[in-house]
Amino acid sequence: QVQLMESGGGLVQPGGSLRLSCVGSGFTINMHTMGWYRQAPGGERELVADISRNGGITNYADSVKGRFTISRDNAKNTVYLQMNALKPEDTAKYYCHRRRGPYWGQGIQVTVSS
Fold first, then answer.
1. Does pLDDT of 36 surpass 90?
2. Cis before residue 102, ω within 30 degrees of 0?
3. What residues contact residue 91 under an 8 Å CB cut-off, 6+ apart?
């Protein structure tokens, strides 16, 4: 059974940092393009970043370029999203995503507020 489990969210002040983790189970992530999406209240789910199977190709939403970094550790079956210089508009529920399927995690809340 494919599962994606996110962790690392929470409340942070503007300008702060968080690192999200997504551990896959029931499959090996090194065979898959993985990504992070987010959905703000009243908004649509949008792609934040994704990463190719070997990590050689990454894509980012324009709104997070230069601030967020997606990475993967295939040995740990884990995908990360390092978020720096966070802004209030980054507040959303963040979802881990496996492209083939597709499969989604349950999501984790990130709130940026002073």
1. yes
2. yes
3. 40, 110, 111, 112, 113
